[in-house]
Amino acid sequence: MFRHYIRGAKSLLLQLFFSKRQFKLLLRTSLEHLDIRLQALASLTDFFSAVVTPIPITAPFGRSMLIVAPHQDDEAIGCGGSLALQVASGNAASVVIMQDGADEHESVSMTREALTEVRNQESRDAAREAGIDSPTFFGLKDLRSNADATASTLRQIIERCRADAIFTPFVLDGHPDHRACNFILARALAGLDRTIRIFQYEVWSFCIPNVLVVIDSVAGKKAEMLACFKTANKALDYAHATKGLNMFHSRLLPAGHAKYVECFFELPRQEFIELVERVEHAESGEFPRKQDMSDLRLRNARAGSDAFPCR
User: Fold this and answer.
1) pLDDT of residue 281
2) What is the pTM of this model?
3) Which CATH superfamily does the domain covering 35-297 fall into?
């Protein structure tokens, strides 16, 4: 009986404490000294579930939400429910698609340009289902080429939209493009000095969830968004798999509290940058030089913010 009261008091205190803070991280171990492969393995095996307590949060996530998606469909898989809730709250939301999504064009007997346009249209259709304007498409073939220039363009969009909540794939995601997306975003954020919440979402891998969003009221809307991506769903049934993932995550709340849940690893801007730099170092084997980061911040500070309109 005594343990029951202790558990109840702990749960109440955690929710009261974290509800008034932007940084909802309860992490009693460090990622800093883990090799990138061990980091990814730990994430995939839910290793941190015993030391990280995910806290329920609700929309709006900020005045302006920006989803950074490596490919057409990642925006719906990872955070389509949260996007729908943000729109329902009456606050701004927009999407950036980084890669052209056409690496497999030969296997479907299409030109790269033709497949890119098909997939872009699918993202436009999903955006319409969500109630937002068409995404901004970077159309990159390789996310690791000209990363600084891409980061500069992304930073201009962040500033034009005044984004204060940015959603991006989990930095330890199994897809290399998803990690590269974070490397670019960290560079884009390096020249900024304001409060921005970074939410890392799940696509190919589990994240280390420290926040979660109940999406029961918009689960149907998310399913409609996912159904727009006919090209990807022909290869793998992402719509079915994502529904199952969101159902699985309902286990993080007491029985009856939720049927569908999206999970995120939330960090403040500067701590996200530091984490990404460590992961990028582990992947490349090279530490970023301080002078390189200083030069990047200086270039970003001098850059204008009129490359793209906020969509």
Assistant:
1) 85
2) 0.81
3) LmbE-like (3.40.50.10320)
